[in-house]
Amino acid sequence: xxxxxxxxxxNEINLQLESTLQELPMWEVQIELHxxxxxxxxxxxxxxxxxxxxxxxxxxxxxxxxxxxFFEHMSRPYSFGLFSQRPIENLYNxxxxxxxxxxxxxxxVEATQKALQRSFHLVYEPIVVATKSGKYGLLDFxxxxxxxxxxxxxxxxxxxxxxxxSQIAKAGFQDLQHNYSxxxxxxxxxxxxxxxxxxxxxxxxxxxxxxxxxVHAIDYTRNLLELINLYRQHYxxxxxxxxxxxxxxxxxxxxxxxxxxLTSMKLGCDRIxxxxxxxxxxxxxxxxxxxxxxxxxxxxxxxxxLRSRFKEEFxxxxxxVIKEYGNIPEIECYAGLLNQVFMNILANAIDALQESIIKNxxxxxxxxxxxxxxxxxxxxxxxxxxxxxxxIVDNGVGIPEDIQKYLFNxxxxxxxxxxGTGLGLSISYQIVVEKHGGQLQCLSTVGKGTxxxxxxxxxxx
Length: 461
Description:
By secondary structure, the chain is an alpha/beta fold. The chain is built from 14 helices and 13 strands.
């Protein structure tokens, strides 16, 4: 058994933009499968930060057992007695944990992207790193995020130097921008992954418990109320004490309202489950990156996530949404990335309409004519050449013609300092055009509104 002590944190290492996994601190705690399970408890006790242990058979790599999975199983009744004295192989064969193995030569940025695409219940599991020499080490997922954050800060510093000095070659600058775009996407995926994992663990299980028991509660209530009705039919003249209690609790009202109360509770549980499912559909973290999906599900999930902004009254006015969906079969696309495009465009439309509302109030104070009610229209259609058109139209302030040609440039924004990164539309353009082989256009007239047209093929080439 070999343990690596005095571990450094990834943010204490001098990393570069193209640093690889083998530069990060890793654990190399190993144990043979024939050893008793109690030895694992000893090793985990000696190293409180140890994320997992490498399992060998005759000094050859077999697999890995994480701290979380091990203690999760050993905390169950009888597990300690069954496996503490028996070979570790018995426990390993029972659990059959999923392995996530990456080559040591892969960059930190690419490794983070791959790690975040794991299922939400595996996203915090340690990563097995294989080197060219045939050795294996364990990388804590949090160490990977620390390294990623250091590279993120380093990229920002480089970008600032590029903007201030303007002496870097054009090709190198484009590579740097591309790297930053990937980092931004990884950051968003990390945030979504934590959000989905938290909701799934903290909300979904208790809601399922309540929803499952509500079915029985409704059934029991119906039976009890039927029994009470039978008593009232066959014993129409109850004792005075019973009459008094019936009057106190307003039995007729309770009989009529109690089923409605339980039905409302069931609707509330269904609503929470719908929100959780919409978040999963939006992030697509637990599914393959490219797959066949219903494009309307992605739009609806995005609208649900932005629902709080639509419900918000801005100067006493709410934004309306009109959906006109065409008959479109499931299409092949990168669903998570495409949902990000919807999010960017819809969020920009909401900002534009809020600005329109402010100008509306100013015109009203000046006794000028009022602008129309703020509306976002979403239209979808399938063309004769198997192209899917998605139109997102708002009746906001519009975009001046002289700046429309800069909309999809990286770091270009018309928003005030601190309110926009200038990356939303450039990333959206990259996703639609480069990733899907489609087109992204903007048509706008000042004072009338803006229309974004997304066109993608039904099948990716």
